[in-house]
Amino acid sequence: LAVSLTQGFGQVVMTQVNPDLGVFVPSAASAGVLMLLSRLQIYKAAWSIENSRIMDSSSAGIPDGNSHGMSVFQAFFPYITMTFITLSILMISPLNDFFGSLSYGPSFPGSVTGLGVNNTPVDLYAPIKPFTHASFFLAMSAFAGYVYYKKKSFVRRNSITLILSRALRKALPSSIAIVSLLGISRIMTGSGQTEILSYGVASLFGNLYSVISPFVGLVGAFITSSNMSSNILFGGFQYSLSEILKVESFLLLGAQTAGGSIGTSIAPSNVVLGATTAGILGKEGDILRKILPFVVAVTGLFGLITLVLALNL
Description:
The protein is mainly α and 313 residues long. Helix content is 68%, strand content 1%.
């Protein structure tokens, strides 16, 4: 509850100040709230869950206590560094102007499809400012953390190659998937497929589509196991429908990402991961049967809320 309220209100406030900080600052604030709550008397007593495959640290190979001698400050050092770098570059105008002066975006010629969909030429498409991009802040804080931990002997010498190779192995599959989804989304939009599908769905459901919009996000997340990937696939579709149906775009886009968030809970890869972690591999069908009614009910509730708002805005 504390995390939800902190992140929810924090995002509403921070996105008005700086969209790039809309997630990071509320998340950091949530971590601070949890640290403060952990100091309450109710959390002082030691406790454990008996016969748990998750909470039993001895069976999971997790050392008890602070065996590495790392303090809380040392553990949070990369995050503190990232906070300092991010806030300094984004909030201090001279630094923001200096680091944001460099940008790059490809150019594309115009085209017209066989069905008459016109794509105007673009000189600078979705320009990226690499030194004010979130990836730059992450890279700088990761490098600072590596140097600091190496100095404190928390990482072995010459371990940078191993770290980078592991990071590459983990990042490559998801990167390929995201690039592929982006390619599919752009091709569908540029060729007019998204627009044609939008008109077809709008003529079939009319204003009642608002009830269905969260389920589209849910299906996308179920297929791709990612809310972001679902938004990549269907975000343009939802936006196009909002224009056709004369509905505020933020309603259908909000319903899309809300449904996608719920859909990740029933995504096959996530269910398998959860079953593996809990030591009940092979029970994926039972998990889905138990959680599916809840998922459908909450998604339906979001749909009804979207419909009511669409009819009154």
